[in-house]
């Protein structure tokens, strides 16, 4: 089966393309560096020909409020229109656990707008909500850093390995559309501040993590369960503690 992966040269997309090809599918990476641009529409109609499934794991190059909203609205609108014209029958999108609870963040408002466009399009769809990737923990620390201090909430977080995200998205892509959101997460939940404290210690990073219940996450306040999946989430097997030990 031909499956077009929008954002197919990025972290998740490249892993997904590799996994789908190993399963015998014709997985086609689509991104600006392969001649496909969802913002301008360049190359879209050509790459989608003969593809019943389209997977969107692309991300905005800018997280500034206006820029990220423009990216997700324009790219998703262009993509859904081109899919309908090409006869695609399943749109799969990767989004984030807690998106609807993080609406004070410009980034997550844009992700919610993306999801709304998909749900209202009439295209059969599946939206995969993933928790934060293992690989993003240092970035979370960097965004919360002031001088030598990292100020973070003790709210819960249940990160997942990017390889496991790609595998879950791949399983969704080759299945029937669910016309709903499915959640995926890692097997372990941590307080966010403690997780980053462990991460920095394992990397011999001298920054100090300070617990602050009022600390914001991508501009939004956190409750205990804001970043956590619901009880029906599919849990991957890779443990963060094991992965972190290997990185060290």
Ordered list of secondary-structure elements with their pairings:
Blueprint: E1 2-6, H1 11-22, E2 26-30, H2 44-48, E3 53-56, H3 65-86, E4 90-96, H4 106-120, E5 125-130, H5 137-143, E6 145-146, E7 149-152, E8 156-157, H6 162-174, E9 181-185, E10 190-191, H7 192-202, E11 208-211, E12 234-235, H8 240-247
Parallel strand pairs: 1-2, 1-3, 3-4, 4-5, 5-9, 7-11, 9-12
Antiparallel strand pairs: 6-7, 8-10
Helix pairs in contact: 1-6, 3-4, 5-7
Q: How would you explain this protein's 3D organization?
A:
This protein is α/β, with parallel strands linked by helices. 38% of the residues lie in helices and 19% in strands. The chain has helices at residues 11-22, 44-48, 65-86, 106-120, 137-143, 162-174, 192-202, 240-247, and strands at residues 2-6, 26-30, 53-56, 90-96, 125-130, 145-146, 149-152, 156-157, 181-185, 190-191, 208-211, 234-235. A 7-stranded parallel β-sheet has the order 2-1-3-4-5-9-12, with helices on both faces. A 3-stranded mixed β-sheet has the order 6-7-11. The model has no long low-confidence stretch (mean pLDDT 97).
User: How many alpha or pi helices?
Assistant: 8
For the CA atoms, what is the radius of gyration?
A: 18 Å
Strand content: 15-25%
Low-confidence stretches: none
The largest β sheet comes out as:
7 strands, parallel
Order of helices and strands: EHEHEHEHEHEEEHEEHEEH
Question: What form results from the Cα inertia axes?
Answer: globular
Q: Number of DSSP strands?
A: 12
Helix content: 25-40%
- Strand order, largest beta sheet: 2-1-3-4-5-9-12
Task: Tell me the distance between the termini.
Answer: 39 Å
Mean pLDDT across all amino acids: 97
In terms of structural class, how would the helical and strand content be classed?
alpha/beta
């Amino acid at each position: 089966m031909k499956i077009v992966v929008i954002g197919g040269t990025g972290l998740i997309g490249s892993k997904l393309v590799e996994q789908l090809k190993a399963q015998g599918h014709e997985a086609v990476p689509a991104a600006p560096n392969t001649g496909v641009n969802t913002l301008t529409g360049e190359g879209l109609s050509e790459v989608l020909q003969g593809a019943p499934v389209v997977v969107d794991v692309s991300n905005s190059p800018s997280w500034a409020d206006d820029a990220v909203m423009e990216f997700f609205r324009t790219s998703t609108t262009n993509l859904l229109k081109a899919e309908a014209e090409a006869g695609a029958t399943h749109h799969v999108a990767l989004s984030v656990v807690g998106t609807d609870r993080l609406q004070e963040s410009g980034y997550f408002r844009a992700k919610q707008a993306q999801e709304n466009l998909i749900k209202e399009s009439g295209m059969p769809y599946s939206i995969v909500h993933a928790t934060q990737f293992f690989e993003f923990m240092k970035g979370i620390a960097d965004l919360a850093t002031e001088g030598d201090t990292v100020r973070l909430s003790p709210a819960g977080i249940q990160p997942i390995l990017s390889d496991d995200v790609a595998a879950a998205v791949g399983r969704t892509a080759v299945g029937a559309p669910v016309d709903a959101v499915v959640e995926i997460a890692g097997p372990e939940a941590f307080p966010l501040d403690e997780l980053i404290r462990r991460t920095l210690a394992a990397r011999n990073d001298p920054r100090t993590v300070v617990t602050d219940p009022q600390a914001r996450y991508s501009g939004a306040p956190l409750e205990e369960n804001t970043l956590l999946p619901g009880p029906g989430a599919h849990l991957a097997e890779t443990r963060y503690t094991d992965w972190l030990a290997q990185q060290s």
